[in-house]
Structure formats: structure tokens, C-alpha cells
Amino acid sequence: MMTEEIGHIRPRNLEAFIVKAFMHHGLSEDHANSVAHTMIVANLRGVDTHGVVRSGSYIERFKLNLVKPQPAFKVETRYGWAHAIDADNGMGPVVSDFAMKKVLDSAESHGIGGATVRQSNHFGAAQVFALQAAAQDCIGIVLSPASKSLAPFGSMEPLFGTNPIAVAAPAGRHAPWCLDMATSISARGHIRIAARRGEPIPEGWALDDQGRPTTDAEAALKGVMLPFAGPKGSALAMLVDMMGGALSGSGYAGTIRDMTRDFETPQDVGHFFMAFKIDAFMPVPEYTARMEHMIATLKALKPAAGFDEVMYPGEREARLAAKREAEGIPIPFETRKVLVQLSEETGIALPEGLN
Ligand SMILES: NC(=O)c1ccc[n+]([C@@H]2O[C@H](COP(=O)([O-])OP(=O)(O)OC[C@H]3O[C@@H](n4cnc5c(N)ncnc54)[C@H](O)[C@@H]3O)[C@@H](O)[C@H]2O)c1
Question: What is the number of H-type helices and E-type strands within the chain?
Fold first, then answer.
């Protein structure tokens, strides 16, 4: 559990530290920048599970030769706007940054760009890449299958991963609209915490090892996690598997390796990226006025019992990012441990505030 915040670190200092650490492990400065930027944006926007805390496990896989620090990407471009990319087993954030840039270049000239990526690795928080599209007057879509942990609707066996979906769109004077969600109902970590505390889990999160719904956290750990919203979440998890896995030529149908458990084989993660220009459909000022009106209408709704306000997707994250830009990124004990180990291994001084 990530508790006991022990300090707030300036985002740029933390980013510089991560860049140096990854360069120490063989990445070019450009690639190390992609990795650090992806993690820092995740931390700024409150996705701390996919922020700098991941650096330890990412680097562990370099040491085991399971990820290449200097991959040679291969790109096949078809129809002028679609790119089938082979990541050569490089880091997920690096090839994803590369792929989204190619997609956005194509969107500039064709109004639309798309990319599949195969032979990649865990890329972190999907919104980081979708937001790159929103910054260029595009709507961006990002999908990526993960190692299996969820039973499809009607099954008691895992097949899909937590398979995230992100969509980002410009929202005029507001922060970008940004949906970014796993298709699991909950992370397995929450069940582990409940089991440790002897607490029940909500109905619908998991099945026991006999395929029966359970609220017993221990029984759930022996069983399987479920997608959100029954057959609908299950269908979306499969959509991600289809587009990011089957279509990309990477792992699908349960074959992606778990980066925290399999230390023998590359992960074989795939991704799917797409972006299209707003002005392919409507002049940007008209779209912007309509988005602003939509958000104003939503925010003017009367909050339900237990709510102070109605928020749109991405609003909470943008607010937190502004706060963390100003006050620094909070570093809980577990994350500090990871960064201290990284500093000790590489001889790179910890960022100010952590030392
Ligand atoms: N790389 C991978 O394999 C992988 C796998 C799973 C998840 N992830 C990442 O984990 C992160 C967390 O996913 P999650 O499903 O736990 O996200 P979440 O449940 O925190 O949020 C899901 C969505 O709901 C919106 N939201 C949340 N609270 C809201 C509110 N009060 N009002 C309006 N909108 C609200 C958020 O803006 C977000 O778009 C994501 O960044 C995802 O990409 C990555």
C-alpha cells in the first residue's frame, strides 16, 4: 500500500533523476526522456501506480535481458496514414511516444493517423499518449492489452488483462476531456489489502476457485478477477485484446507475459494508437464552443447525495496535476525505497528533497 508520504519532490528534479538513471542503463537521452516524461505525467495526474515507482521493475527487466535498452524500431506504413510498428522488444513508453508522434504527423497531412505496435512492453498510463493528441487539436485513442488476470463474462478462467482504454479530446478553455480506465473492476492489489485486513470485498469483483461470486477476499485471491459491468466490460477488454493484440501481431488471448511474475521471456505487449483532426469534421472554434457548452451544462447539474460537484473525465487529474506542479509530487515510502535503490546502484544523486 502506498501510504506515509514522506516528501514532495519538484517534478523537473524527479524527471531529471529518472532520465539519468535510464541513461545509465543504456538508453539514449531521447528514449530516457520519453520514459521519464511518461512516468512524471502519470504521477502529476495521480496515477501513482504507473509513475516513478515502476522504474525498479522496468530496470530489473533490462538486467535480465528481457527488454532491449537500444531497440531498432521497424515501421511499415500503409495507405499513407497507418503504421505497423515492430518495437524490437524496447520499452513501452519509448515506442509509444514514437508511435504517437508518427500518428500525429500522419494526422497533420491526412486528417487521421493510426499505429499498431508489436513486441513491446508495459507502457504505463494510457492517458499520457492520448493527451498528446488532444494537445494538437486531435482526438486520440489508445489501447493496450495486459497479461491475463480477468475471466471473460461467463467464464471462471482468466484470459484478458486489465486492458486499459484511453481517449482524450481538447476541451477549449477547460483541461482536456480524458477517459483513461482499466477494464477490470478493481486492481488485484485492493483484494490483497482486504485479505490482509480480514475485510470483505464488494460483490461483483471476483469469483472463487469454483467459479462462484464471492465477497471473501481470501477466496477471491484463489479465484479470478472480473471485468467491470459484466458482459459490457468483458466486451471492451476483448476489444483491447483484439486491436492492441491480435491486430498488432503481438500477444493476445492470454499469451502476454506478466512483468512482475515471468522473468524468463519478453512480455510481447502490443498497443493501438489512433488520432484524427477535429477539423476533419468541424471547424475547431465551433467544436470548442460546443465542448465548452457541454462541460458547462454537465457542471451546472445538481450534484447527487454524497457529491460536491459533477466532474467530467480528466478534470480531477488536471486539477491534481496543477497542484502537484506547484507543490511537488508526493513520494510515499515504497516509492522512496525504489528511488534510493536506483540512486545507490547508479551513483546518481537523489533529487533534492529525497536525500
Ligand atoms: N499499461 C497497462 O497495462 C495498464 C493496465 C491497467 C491500467 N492501467 C492504467 O491505470 C490507470 C488507472 O486506471 P483506473 O481504471 O483505475 O482509473 P480510475 O478508475 O481512477 O478512472 C477511470 C476514469 O474515470 C474518471 N473518473 C474517476 N473519478 C471520476 C469522477 N469522480 N468524476 C468523473 N470522472 C471520474 C477518470 O477521469 C478516468 O477517466 C490508467 O492510467 C490506466 O491506463 C495501465
Answer: 11, 12
